[in-house]
Amino acid sequence: MSGVTSSAVDVVIEDLEAHRRELTGYCYRMLGAGGEAEEAVQETLLRAWQAADRFQGRSSVRTWLYRIATNVCIDMGRSSQRRARPVDLGPARTPDPVHLADVLPDDAWITPVADGSVLDLEGDPAEVAAARDTIRLAFISALQRLPARQRAALVLCDVLRWSAAEVAELLDTTTASVNSALQRARAALAEAPAAAPTPVLTADEQALLARYVDAFERYDMEALAALLHHDVIQTMPPYAMWLQGIDDLVAWYVGPGAGCADSRLLAGWANGCPAFAQYKPDPAGGRSPWALQVVELRDGRIEAIHAFLDTEESFARFGFPARLDAPRDGQPPRWP
């Protein structure tokens, strides 16, 4: 062993797993993909475990892990492609099935993350609400436009509240360089569209979402339309197309999206927003996973529905069942 005793190595190794959730949140903000964030954390912990006997103790285990995680994320994000939302990649389309031919590559779009995998939901409610805003899809997409080291500096300083001196040590640079990177990053984010904050759901918002579940499961377009903003948007990654306006959404649901009729929704949280696992009727019986819906609210209405269709990967990560066979129990949805 070099630098530390065997017992100290054991302590370092025991500390690694305790940081998994916060590291996942950091890697998600760096990479913009839930699955990649988990892979990055796994690689970070593996490298740390392999190097535990060389840990000199000149910094905390936490700082050491973040240094490794930053290098892992920079290595993973070297592609010229930057992940984004469909709304960032082009104008709204009409509800024409011909647009379904335009499919985004796997590394082109932001993928969702479960709040519980990146946030301490047992913490102070105000802090949880503030943290949820830092995993909103719009914020994650804006982060991806920044160079990697600017992104790291901004997340570490503005989200995780590290000092510029601490970040300079982690990035092996100067405090002045970190402050300069922060200034450029903040200026770039100031030009990005801002998303409305997401506090704890009010009773009215929970009632709105319960009406949404009821309308969607009954496929009652009139009831559904009454819950939407006039400028509501819907995205459906991996499709590049996105829709805007109540009329186009309803036209989609009764046209190309008519196969969603008689779906069932299970409630959860994703990207700081209420979310639903959508299960469509399966010709073989029961219902199969179809989409993970991330629902954004504004002024007592639904302003966006982001339906992620990569269900095999996302449903497993979110802990939703692989299929539904039993009928709904009649209880309204609840959110933690």
What fraction, in percent, of the residue positions are helical? 40-55%
Question: Strand order, biggest sheet?
Answer: 2-1-6-5-4-3
- Model regions low in confidence, pLDDT < 50 over at least 5 residues: 1-9
Number of E-type strands? 6
Overall structural class, as computed from helix and strand content, comes to: alpha+beta
* Mean pLDDT value: 88
General shape = globular
Query: Number of DSSP helices?
Result: 15
Q: Give the oligomeric state.
A: single chain
Q: β content, as a range? A: 5-15%
CATH class of the largest domain: Mainly Alpha
Which fold name fills CATH's third level, the topology of the largest domain? Butyryl-CoA Dehydrogenase, subunit A, domain 3
SSE order in H/E notation? HHHHHHHHHHHHHEEHEEEEH
- Main sheet record: 6 strands, mixed
| N-to-C CA distance | 46 Å
Radius of gyration: 21 Å
